[in-house]
Specification:
heterodimer, A: about 280 residues, mainly beta, Cyclophilin, 2 domains, eight-stranded antiparallel β-barrel, 6 helices, about 40% strand, globular, B: about 140 residues, alpha+beta, eight-stranded antiparallel beta barrel, two-stranded antiparallel sheet, 12 strands
């Protein structure tokens, strides 16, 4: 494992290079360290900022391509040798739409003040940013953690715990908790990509309502459990995903976030659309 | 008139080529059939199954191009060389957005049982499928 320290105008975060998905890009960046330049807001990509100066690496191909980002995603776009950072709801875009990218690294923990400072670049203007090999290469990657009450979700062979996001979505969380425990069959979404839908007796586990709960979002991030108010359905996002229903983008309300490493579930879920449904249980702890 | 014979899981049906597709394309499709393989759900496109056709299908341009497919419609993706069969609300998409494909045929016999069988993929997983030229 190789960690970077990314110093944004005096605030430092640590990021883990994504060697598994982007071995050539991460090796080139690692060899080029330290380097730096000016950080500016991405302006047409949502809550995202970027390194204005070209990254001092040679010509690289796209690797392990991904289209969607989540807070903490550090991505690389080879045609213009650009590094960009997703700090909240963002999708790397140009005048003609969004682009596929190399997933370069993942910032650990919650972004906090570092992320806010990055998003504030649209007001503050350019600020210095530096990339260097992290002083701490030993401490394991720190996953984001939440203090909310826990639920336990078992899908097939994998069990994860998720923290309820009562602070952000109290109405939706209460709606889901009132249904627990749940058991049924977990299937892959047929519209949303890397999204698992939790069905009870072949249907969504609850009834849809309209406008009674929080607004929701069309940005769907790995590790988040969502409620679709319109259908009553509960889903778990495990990778590149953008949930839709009958082709229409779906607003989903985040109700919980998986704590810790999701990779065991991702490994199982990637082939679930071919292998078929898995039994699931969901209960409050 | 040539038509397609379709088997998905336990269901069988027939499909007729649509008039918008010219005979050269139909010849090309027929040249790679019969095809036996696995119908898999398309995770970005709704109620759509995809069957990989053998290589060699010379489809380098879109004919009868569509992205919305009514249930019981057969299409071919020039990009992937897959035969696509819709069984509900479907729009051919990738994570990058809408992708146009060539509509080639419509299921005329056994439509209900094929659609019902295909819809079980989400629970049972991929299904064995065969596409052949009918007499």
């Amino acid at each position: 494992m190789k960690f970077l320290d990314i110093d944004l105008d005096g605030l430092v975060c640590r990021a883990l290079l994504n060697e598994a998905k982007a071995p050539h890009t991460t090796e080139a960046v690692w060899k080029a360290l330290p380097f730096g330049g000016r950080a500016v807001h991405a302006q047409i990509s949502g809550d995202m900022f970027r390194l204005l100066d070209p990254v001092p690496v040679g010509d690289l191909e796209l690797e392990g391509t991904e289209l969607f980002q989540h807070p903490g995603s550090v991505v690389y776009y080879p045609p213009i040798r650009e590094i960009a950072f997703c700090v909240w709801e963002a999708q790397f875009s140009g005048p003609h739409g969004s682009y596929q990218l190399t997933p370069l690294a993942e910032i650990e923990g919650d972004l906090g003040e570092w992320g806010r400072r990055g998003n504030d670049l649209i007001v503050s203007g350019a600020r210095p940013i530096e990339f260097r090999r992290a002083q701490d290469q030993e401490t394991p990657f720190r996953y984001p953690s939440d203090s909310g009450k826990r639920i336990e979700l078992t899908i097939g062979e994998v069990t994860v715990q998720a923290a309820l996001l009562e602070g952000g979505s109290p109405l939706a969380v209460a709606s889901v908790v009132s249904r627990l425990p749940l058991e049924g069959r977990a299937v892959n979404s047929d519209w949303g990509g890397s999204m698992t839908r939790l069905l009870v007796e072949g249907r969504e586990s609850g009834s849809g309502t309209s406008g009674a709960l929080e607004q929701g979002t069309t940005f769907h991030w790995p590790g988040y459990v969502y409620l679709n108010e319109a259908t009553g359905g509960i889903s778990l996002c495990y990778g590149d995903a953008s949930e839709r229903f009958d082709g229409t983008p779906a607003r989903l309300i985040p109700i919980a976030r998986v704590q810790g490493d999701l990779s065991a579930y991702q490994d199982q879920a990637r082939n679930q659309y071919i292998n078929g449904a898995k039994e699931f249980t969901c209960r409050a702890l | 008139m040539r038509h397609l014979e379709i088997t998905v899981g336990k269901a069988t049906g027939e499909a007729e080529f649509i008039s918008e597709v010219d005979s050269k394309v139909i010849d090309a499709i027929c040249s790679v059939l019969p095809c036996e393989g696995t119908l898999i759900p398309a995770i970005w496109s709704g109620s759509l199954g995809a069957l990989q056709l053998p290589p060699g299908l010379p489809l380098d341009e879109l004919q009868a191009s569509v992205c919305s497919l009514y249930p019981g419609t057969l299409a071919i993706s020039p990009r992937t060389g897959e035969l696509l069969l819709s069984y509900g609300a479907a729009e051919t998409r990738t994570e990058l957005g809408v992708e146009y494909v060539c509509r080639i045929a419509t299921v005329t016999t056994g439509r209900g049982s094929l659609i019902t069988e295909c819809a079980t993929m989400h629970d049972r997983g991929a299904l064995g499928a065969t596409i052949a030229i009918g007499n």
